[in-house]
């Protein structure tokens, strides 16, 4: 059951054993419910998003757009590393939410706005490639 987990919604740890299971320890709940496959999917998804932000930034012709994309990639990486490090015990808990997964509307909103700017930069890059 370690590989596939207990099943969606069958977590026992979130019923009072873990403090702040919906924010700080959301990866532990995902690991219990969805197993290694679920955790790997979350981490690979975040890694792919970081890779895409870095690639969009490297293709941008404007220096400011490059800095925005690199900043967004580092923001997602640092926030994910601090949350995963706290959940695994490698770092102290700081209350940083896991991007796109943890409960909290303000965290989600504050990361989606700059991600929309990165999407706009990507569209401008694509438009310039098609013009050439």
Highlighted features:
132 residues; mainly alpha; 0% strand; elongated
Folded structure, characterized:
It is a single chain. It is built from three helices and no strands. It has 132 residues and is mainly alpha-helical. The protein has one domain. Helix 1 packs antiparallel against helix 2, helix 1 packs parallel to helix 3 and helix 2 runs antiparallel to helix 3. 24% of the residues are buried.
How many separate domains? 1
The ordered H/E elements are: HHH
Poorly predicted runs are none
Helical region count? 3
Total E-strand runs: 0
Q: What is the typical, i.e. mean, pLDDT?
A: 86
General shape: elongated
Quaternary organisation? single chain
- Kindly, what is the distance between the CA atoms of the first and last residues, rounded to a whole number of angstroms? 53 Å
Residues in helices, as a percent range: 55-70%
Rg over C-alpha atoms, rounded to the nearest angstrom: 17 Å
Major β-sheet annotation: none
What fraction strand?
Answer: under 5%
**Structural class category:** mainly alpha
């Amino acid at each position: 059951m370690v590989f596939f987990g207990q099943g969606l919604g069958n977590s026992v740890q979130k019923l009072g054993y873990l403090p702040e299971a919906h924010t700080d320890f959301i990866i532990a709940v995902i690991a219990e419910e969805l197993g290694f496959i679920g955790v790997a999917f979350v981490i690979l998804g975040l890694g792919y998003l970081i890779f895409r932000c870095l690639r969009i930034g490297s293709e941008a012709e404007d220096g400011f757009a490059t800095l925005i994309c690199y900043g967004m990639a580092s923001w997602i990486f640092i926030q994910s590393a601090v949350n995963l490090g706290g959940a695994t015990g490698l770092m102290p808990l700081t209350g940083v939410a896991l991007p796109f997964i943890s409960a909290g509307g303000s965290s989600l909103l504050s990361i989606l706005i700059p991600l929309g700017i990165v999407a706009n930069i990507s569209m401008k890059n694509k438009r310039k490639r098609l013009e050439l």
